[in-house]
Design a protein that fits this description.
Blueprint: H1 2-11, H2 21-25, H3 39-71, H4 82-89, H5 93-110
Length: 113
C-alpha cells in the first residue's frame, strides 16, 4: 500500500537552487552531482534534477506562450505581429503563431473559460 505514496514522493521535482558563482564557474561542477560516489544516490539525485528541469522548462514555456498571446493581443495599441514575436523570441514564425494560440488557450482557461 505504501508503494503509490513512495512513487509519488519520488516523482516530485527537486527544488532548483542557484549554485554559487564559484561552483558554476567550474565546468565539471553541476549541482554537486560529481561529489556523489554512490551510484544509487547519484541516479536518485540526477533523476530529481532532470524532473525539476523538465517541470521548470514546461512552466517557462507556458509563460512564454502567455507573453506571446498578450503581445499579439489586437486590443493593444502596441501589439506585435507574430513575425515580431518570433524575432524577439528567436522562434520560427509558425512556432510563434502556435505559441500565441497556446497562450490564448491558457489565458482563456485561467479566466474561467
Amino acid at each position: 500500500m505504501a508503494e503509490p505514496e513512495q512513487r509519488e514522493r519520488k516523482l516530485r521535482p527537486a527544488p532548483l537552487l542557484f549554485e554559487p558563482s564559484e561552483a558554476s564557474a567550474d565546468p565539471e561542477h553541476f549541482f554537486d552531482l560529481e561529489s556523489i560516489d554512490d551510484p544509487a544516490a547519484l541516479l536518485a539525485r540526477s533523476t530529481e534534477l532532470a524532473l525539476a528541469f523538465r517541470a521548470a522548462a514546461d512552466r517557462a514555456t507556458e509563460f512564454q506562450a502567455i507573453a506571446a498571446a498578450q503581445l499579439a493581443d489586437p486590443r493593444r495599441f502596441d501589439r506585435l505581429t507574430t513575425a515580431d514575436i518570433a524575432e524577439r523570441a528567436q522562434w520560427a514564425e509558425d512556432y510563434a503563431k502556435k505559441m500565441v494560440e497556446f497562450g490564448r488557450d491558457l489565458l482563456r482557461n485561467a479566466n474561467g473559460g
